[in-house]
Amino acid sequence: MGFGPGIAIRELSRRATHGLVCGVDHSEVMVRQAARRNADAVRAGRVDLRCGSAEHLPAFKEPFDKVLAVNNMGM
């Protein structure tokens, strides 16, 4: 939740080599920055980044094993 410029997404995708890292951020700017920073993993299908809010999460195909939220309380 609230992945910002995608630094944590990059680290998580390096560790979850047999999984999918999904992210939702309310800012289109952050989605673009994170997508650029993680372009290889996005192309490989290991990272899925979306614009949305915590109140109205976009639909994902599978349930999540873990959720990480950093510095989001004010959003």
Provide structural commentary.
Helices cover 32% and strands 13% of the residues. By secondary structure, the chain is an alpha+beta fold. The protein starts with 6 loop residues before the first helix and ends in a 24-residue tail after the last strand.
Could you give a short description of this structure?
It contains 3 helices and 2 strands. The protein is α+β, with helices and mostly antiparallel strands and 75 residues long.
How far apart are the first and last residues' alpha carbons, in Å?
Answer: 10 Å
Radius of gyration based on Cα positions: 11 Å
Tell me the series of helices and strands, N- to C-terminal.
HEHHE
The overall pLDDT, averaged over residues, is 89
Strand content: 5-15%
Question: How does the helix and strand content classify structurally?
Answer: alpha+beta
Instruction: Summarize the main sheet.
Output: 2 strands, parallel
Low-confidence segments, ≥5 residues, pLDDT <50? Answer: none
Instruction: Count the DSSP helices.
Output: 3
Helical percentage: 25-40%
Globally, the shape reads: globular
Total strand segments: 2
Question: For this entry, what is the oligomeric state of its chains?
Answer: single chain
Q: How are strands sequenced across the largest beta sheet?
A: 1-2
